[in-house]
Design brief:
Growth Hormone, Chain: A, 80% helix, globular
Length: 436
């Protein structure tokens, strides 16, 4: 009886649902069903708030600039592709450096990485602002690349930190909060970006240090991190990472791809909307445009937090929500082919797509974070976030290229990609009834 119970407590998540012996830490946390920190305490609430500030700051670094891209084109005399690089270079730099930063966080700790990253992030924002004053596109792009490097040490590491701090349903709820905060940043950022543009088009660059400072103080004073971290040599560490992919690669790579696609479509749609709203027949700009951009994202925020709160470690519910989310994305994006000239229906369909994304991403976060031990969690979550950033990087330029072809090309492409991803997730990601 005791042996059977022990085996049930140590289910290792992968597509074939192997059973294997788990660590004492896993048995402990699963048997109590509580977070590794306090449960429902006031201190935990403050930790949640501090954790939530990290993805918000990260998202502000990209989404807050989206409403100002057309104005930037006019002021700097650049074309649509060059303006899209403001988003792409940031995300590309982050995507390339995240795996390295992930290893360092496993080696030295999460806060040791997050704190200097926030400082560098804010400082590069000031440099970008001066680049705009000097009318230097080169300085802005350089500053954005530095910001991207710093971004690699923010939200991706926060996801690993959540896995370190909490367990069971508390972990899923915290990861849902991380994704909801990410979405909340996307809701607020176009509105804040539009308001800042009333001062001057590059005011958003100088706002970054303020948000970074607030997050920095929250992380320093509200989050208490365990001092125990992996001291293993690099070769052994990489061998363990290789072993994880050998054992779980089929579902893990599929999950990475699905998360990347979700962000690719999201940022591509934001870029698309930001450009078409200023053209005829809409002629919408300023704060009103920011509010319209926020509507689909609000659907994603509410859904992300609700999903994270509901799924806990329920593998069956996770499977259902992932597939329903991808079905919603596929059908709504396909339907835009017939309604993209009707702005009200068009925004409604994009909101349904974002709701689907809000179902998908928290489920992926929970599975990926729970798939590995603490000593390798930073690298695995970093690789996942690296691909998410590359999805963001690819969105604006590829959507800009497709927009030059036709609106039909845009939505045929993204609905087809969503359908392919639905098929991959349905057949390759089959979580057990209880993840952990």
């Amino acid at each position: 009886m005791e042996k059977t119970k022990k085996r049930k407590l140590n289910i290792s998540f992968h597509s074939d649902i192997d059973l294997q012996t788990g660590s004492a830490e896993t048995q402990d946390s699963e048997s109590t069903g509580k977070s590794k920190n306090s449960t429902g305490s006031k201190g935990q609430v403050w930790e949640f708030i501090a954790l939530a500030t990290i993805p918000i700051v990260l998202v502000f670094g990209n989404s807050m600039l989206v409403p100002g891209l057309p104005e930037m084109q006019r002021e700097l005399g650049i074309n649509k592709f060059q303006s899209s690089l403001i988003i792409t270079i940031f995300s590309l730099a982050a995507g390339l450096f995240i795996p390295i930063i992930g290893y360092l966080s496993d080696r030295f700790g999460r806060k040791v990485i997050i704190i200097p990253a926030l400082i560098l992030y804010g400082g590069a924002g000031i440099l970008a602002g001066f680049g705009a004053i000097w009318n230097s596109f080169g300085v802005i792009i350089t500053a954005r690349a530095i910001q991207g490097l710093a971004a690699a040490g923010t939200a991706p590491i926060a996801m690993a930190l959540v896995g370190d701090l909490y367990d069971g349903g508390t972990e899923s709820k915290a990861l849902g909060l991380i994704e909801a905060s990410n979405g909340a940043g996307k809701v607020l950022s176009p509105i804040i970006g539009s308001l800042l543009m009333l001062i001057v088009w590059y005011a958003s660059f100088f706002a970054f240090p303020v948000f970074c400072a607030l997050s920095l103080l929250a992380v320093i004073f509200m989050i208490k991190e365990s001092k125990q971290h992996s001291k293993q040599e690099l070769r052994k560490y990489l061998g363990k990472i290789g072993g994880i992919f050998k054992e779980k690669g089929r579902w893990l790579i599929t999950a990475f791809f699905a998360g990347s696609l979700g962000l690719f479509i999201l940022f591509g749609i934001l870029f698309y909307l930001s450009n078409i709203l200023e053209d005829k027949p809409y002629n919408i700009d300023g704060v009103v445009k920011g509010l319209i951009l926020a509507i689909p994202l609000l659907g994603m925020v509410i859904t992300s937090y609700t999903t994270g709160s509901l799924i806990k470690k329920n593998g069956l519910l996770i499977r259902w929500l992932m597939n329903i989310g991808l079905i919603a994305m596929t059908l709504s994006l396909a339907a835009t082919l017939f309604f993209f000239k009707n702005i009200y229906v068009f925004i409604g369909l994009l909101t349904v797509s974002c709701i689907g994304t809000g179902m998908l991403l928290p489920c992926l976060n929970t599975m990926i974070t729970g798939a590995v031990e603490k000593s390798e969690r930073g690298m695995i979550t970093s690789l996942y976030n690296s691909l998410r950033f590359l999805g963001v990087a690819a969105g604006p330029p590829l959507f800009g290229w497709m927009m030059d072809k036709s609106d039909q090309v845009v939505f045929i492409t993204v609905s087809s990609l969503s359908l392919v991803t639905l098929g991959l997730v349905f057949f390759l990601i089959k979580p057990p009834r209880q993840i952990g």
